[in-house]
Amino acid sequence: MYRTLNLGEVDEKLVGQKVELAGWVNTMRDHGGIVFIDLRDKYGLVQLTTHDDSLLTSLTRESVISISGKVVLRDEFNINPNMKSGKVEVEIETLTVLSKARNILPFEVEDSIKVNEELRLKHRYLDLRNQSMQDMLKLRADLSYEVRTCLRNLGFTEVNTPILTVPSPEGARDYLVPSRVHKGKFYALPQAPQQFKQLLMCGGLDKYFQIAPCFRDEDPRADRLAGDFYQIDMEMSFATQEDVHSVVETLIDRIFTKFSKFPFNKGPFKKIPLKDALIKYGSDKPDLRNPIVMQDLGEVFKNTTFDGFKGKTIEGFKITAPNQPRSFYDKLQQYLVDQGAEGLAWVRVQEDGTLKGPIVKFLTENECKTLIATTGAKIDDDIFVIADNNKNKCYKLAGMLRTQLGEKLDLIDKSRIEFCWIVDFPMFELDDEGKIQFCHNPFNMPKGGLKALETMNPLDITAYQYDLVANGYEVASGAVRNTDSAAMVKLFEIVGYGKEEVEKRFGALYTAFSYGAPPHAGVAPGFERLIMLMLGITNIRDVVPFPMNSKAQDVLMGGPIEASETQLRELHIKLR
Description:
Elements: E1 18-30, E2 35-41, E3 44-50, H1 55-58, E4 64-73, E5 88-99, H2 117-122, H3 124-127, H4 131-153, E6 157-158, E7 176-178, E8 186-188, H5 194-202, E9 207-216, E10 227-237, H6 241-259, E11 270-273, H7 274-281, E12 295-296, E13 313-320, H8 326-338, E14 345-349, E15 355-356, H9 365-375, E16 381-388, H10 391-408, E17 419-423, E18 428-430, E19 436-438, H11 449-455, E20 465-470, E21 473-480, H12 485-494, H13 499-505, H14 507-513, E22 520-525, H15 527-535, H16 565-570
Parallel strand pairs: 3-5, 6-9, 11-17
Antiparallel strand pairs: 1-2, 1-4, 2-3, 4-5, 7-8, 9-10, 10-22, 12-13, 13-16, 14-15, 14-16, 17-20, 18-19, 20-21, 21-22
Helix pairs in contact: 4-6, 5-14, 7-10, 11-12, 13-14
């Protein structure tokens, strides 16, 4: 037996008893004839003492040892109130080195979160010893259990869907897996269990969930993982959009009440149509902690002669930012130009109620007065204006300016979490070549159903699509599903696919709908995104045990790797 107790169980109740302990050597200190060793495991830290100073030369930090010894009280001046075991120490009687660590470590375990990420990921097994990482692993496990408990209590059944499947248009590139048995054919790893969970509803399951692995070949970023991630995948039969929202709000309330270090707003969450979100916040995932609200200023300048505004989409807002130097505005302008803006217009309301700024000379007196009245600006307030020929680009740039000012002026309340629903997404959009394509999931129900698809301009059709957003992150995405086979065909016809293509690519779902499909709806909160919010972490890789790096490389295991010629021949593949 290596240990009779874990280190979190050692306290003053054990004084006088002999114990056997095991763990990692955290630190060693020589205090003139007596050596102190701090022993660490995932449960805690215990101070060991010995008079054998040879240990300082034979032991190394992070070595794994087991010891036996007697628990004794510390001297009063040596008590450590920050440790559970801080009133006691263990006098070593025997010590066995189970695994000796190298003399020089790649980094200090207790400071690993401050270390270069590439080095942390290369030695992730060391990084995981850090207490914050241990806490993260425990939170992942506890959250999984709580989610399962909550959804089971709500009548959901957990079902695991296949990993090897076929491509599905989820909006990202698929990971393809070549078939050895079927020459020239490929499986795909699921971007989401979309078709399978809808087929479960057709199979009469009623309420399904799983904490599902998803695979998307996307470029990583701070809030998006490369390769694989997990989502709390749910689907409900005979459910409306409101039914799904209610379940998610119940789940959020339960898990955030239990695990979040930040207060959060309770459901029902505010519902914001996408169009309003873009006009007011410049984003489909707005951070509502930022008090800046944008306005459409098109009416203010509808008759303008100023070339910078004429015929363009115009967004703006007022803020109070007194005593800012000219360099403050110049840096904001340069930031926006770097993002593709033509420039940044700004003015300040003076004490006499008139405007001062670089663009005032191009504006009429009436435009100045209307601008002040529309934005509600007061004396010493600044008004920022963004204009662009592309409506969506204008919204995006204004939203980026809103975020920049919120950060620079410390306007964002980072001590809380603010949830909201973004609803009424468009069913279709134009791609870069001007062709109609799906805006989101092609399996979603268009508002108005088949009639809308047959009579309306596709770009005017909205879907029963909704995203749960918090603090500038998309936390969940879902929709009411389209179960009408004729509408499904029409949807794909609009983007250029015929009925035969639908039957070929989505034959199982298309056929299942013809045998009686219940109306159903679902949603999928991102598991890692929830943990980020709960912990206030901004890098999603810090809440995953073994993530890829920012270049989609597994620096720990060395992936991706080259395949041997034998492997390629077995899979009927020849590299270009």
